[in-house]
Amino acid sequence: MEDRSAKYRAFYAQLICAAARTTDPRIEQAFRTVRREAFVGPGPWSISVGGHPYVATPDDDPAFLYQNTLLALDPARGLNIGMPGAHAFWLGGCGVREGETVIQIGAGSGYYTAILAELTGPSGRVLAYEIDERLAALARENLKGIAHVALEDRSGIASDLPNADVIYVCAGAAQPAVEWLDALRPGGRLVFPLAPEGMLGGMLMITRPDAGAIWPAKFLSRAQFIGCAGLQDADAGRRLAEAFARGWESVQSLRRAGAPDETCWFAGEGWWLSTAPAPVPTDSIKPHADLTQA
Questions:
Q1: Segment 147-158, tens digit of pLDDT
Q2: CA–CA gap between residue 66 and residue 84 (Å, rounded)
Q3: CA-CA distances (angstroms) from residue 66 to 88, 274, 281?
Q4: Which end is more exposed in the chain, N or C (fewer Cβ atoms within 10 Å of the end residue's Cβ)?
Q5: Quick check: helix, strand or coil at residue 269?
Q6: Taking the domains of the chain in order of start, what are their residue ranges?
Q7: For residue 282, is pLDDT > 60?
Q8: Which fold has domain 2-274?
Q9: Omega prior to 84 cis, within 30 of 0
Q10: What does DSSP assign to residue 76?
Q11: What does pTM read for this prediction?
């Protein structure tokens, strides 16, 4: 069975990297290395493509797992191991490097935590947060053999977050948590779904500059996630839906000071997104509008 799984993973890694339009061999190797079946539990499994209904696999052949699909962890609540092609694209966008410190918010059963650990290597560190007790217990068991991963079974919106090079959020929010922004080192990247629960929003990447209140920012793609507890806002959700309807590719910066001006795309409390560039823009990456479900 392990030989078959390895064959499936080799194909799967190429498939999702093609879907993500990434040529980074480290991302392909990470998806080739981590066994997906270890994180989804015993089969048969429930699988979905995007927003379509779940389909049950006929048996527990791991071939069913190595596709660009969602894998249900709790179908009743819509909790999944997210779409790998989307995550491969987002991981390529934020460029996790060996030796970096990564915080993951919303570890689920730990699959993408393990992918992040492959990208940082043993010289790096991954600190994952999962607020759901059942999922946290699964993730702790699944990740126990990876020495440079630590799991916290609590909210990742906390004042005691360590300094990080990357914060990778797997739960939708109506705003970036101040705690996430404050934890970033200069040059650090926050990637999170600006998408309140039940809404199709966008995966936003914000980069902390060396100084100043104008931070480079850009949407990597559209995105929809289960909601992040503590960062939901019905009014913001309504206004965000209107903003996305007007377009989203033009956002270039996050402003943490000053009054919104004519370049404002969306304004929150104490922050706003602008279509004007930051003094030091981020590297160019073409947005991928077709990646939505995580």
A1: 999 999 999 999
A2: 9
A3: 14, 39, 36
A4: N
A5: coil
A6: 2-274
A7: no
A8: Rossmann fold (3.40.50)
A9: no
A10: G
A11: 0.93
